[in-house]
């Protein structure tokens, strides 16, 4: 295979992984109610940001919060799938794993809400 063919094949692989990742986001959006709620809250936050005119720094903070929240929710969904793959039975370890992951999402969500409200309030 020539250098050009190799480069094309690299791009194809990159494109394929991108499509797999996009499919993961789309499937999670379709099937997980919590993910849909997070997307809705993110959209409201972006609209509020334009209304109260966030500064650049405030936008950076908000976009990191939104990106972090959605990424964490995707990881939580991935973990739930893996646990369900490992066992369909009710097991304490399965519960501990799912609850810990859900706890991580909750911690980030609470902090995001506090920071989001503070930023909006600060610009009123
Ligand atoms: N295999 C399991 N063993 C013990 N507890 C579980 C297990 N799966 C889920 N749980 C508990 O149920 C909670 C909700 O889990 P999950 O969102 O996966 O729904 P589910 O209980 O599997 O069923 P459903 O999706 O139909 O509501 C978890 O946070 C955990 O506390």
Automatic annotation (TrEMBL):
<keyword id="KW-0547">Nucleotide-binding</keyword>
<keyword id="KW-0808">Transferase</keyword>
<dbReference type="InterPro" id="IPR033717">
    <property type="entry name" value="UDPK"/>
</dbReference>
<keyword id="KW-1003">Cell membrane</keyword>
<keyword id="KW-0472">Membrane</keyword>
<dbReference type="InterPro" id="IPR036945">
    <property type="entry name" value="DAGK_sf"/>
</dbReference>
<feature type="transmembrane region" description="Helical">
    <location>
        <begin position="100"/>
        <end position="121"/>
    </location>
</feature>
<comment type="similarity">
    <text>Belongs to the bacterial diacylglycerol kinase family.</text>
</comment>
<keyword id="KW-0444">Lipid biosynthesis</keyword>
<feature type="transmembrane region" description="Helical">
    <location>
        <begin position="59"/>
        <end position="79"/>
    </location>
</feature>
<dbReference type="Pfam" id="PF01219">
    <property type="entry name" value="DAGK_prokar"/>
</dbReference>
<keyword id="KW-0418">Kinase</keyword>
<keyword id="KW-1133">Transmembrane helix</keyword>
<feature type="transmembrane region" description="Helical">
    <location>
        <begin position="35"/>
        <end position="53"/>
    </location>
</feature>
<keyword id="KW-0594">Phospholipid biosynthesis</keyword>
<dbReference type="InterPro" id="IPR000829">
    <property type="entry name" value="DAGK"/>
</dbReference>
<keyword id="KW-0443">Lipid metabolism</keyword>
<keyword id="KW-0812">Transmembrane</keyword>
<protein>
    <submittedName>
        <fullName>Undecaprenol kinase</fullName>
        <ecNumber>2.7.1.66</ecNumber>
    </submittedName>
</protein>
<keyword id="KW-1208">Phospholipid metabolism</keyword>
<dbReference type="GO" id="GO:0036433">
    <property type="term" value="F:di-trans, poly-cis-undecaprenol kinase activity"/>
</dbReference>
<keyword id="KW-0067">ATP-binding</keyword>
């Amino acid at each position: 295979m020539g250098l050009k063919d190799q480069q094309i094949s690299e791009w194809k692989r990159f494109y394929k992984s991108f499509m797999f990742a996009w499919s993961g986001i789309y499937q999670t959006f379709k099937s997980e109610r919590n993910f849909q709620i997070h997307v809705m809250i993110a959209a409201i936050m972006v609209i509020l940001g334009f209304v109260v005119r966030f500064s650049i720094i405030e936008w950076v903070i908000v976009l990191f919060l939104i990106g972090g929240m959605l990424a964490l929710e995707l990881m939580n969904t991935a973990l739930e799938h893996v646990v369900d793959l490992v066992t369909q039975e009710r097991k304490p370890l399965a519960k501990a794993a799912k609850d810990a992951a859900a706890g991580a999402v909750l911690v980030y969500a609470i902090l995001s809400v506090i920071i989001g409200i503070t930023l909006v309030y600060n610009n009123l």
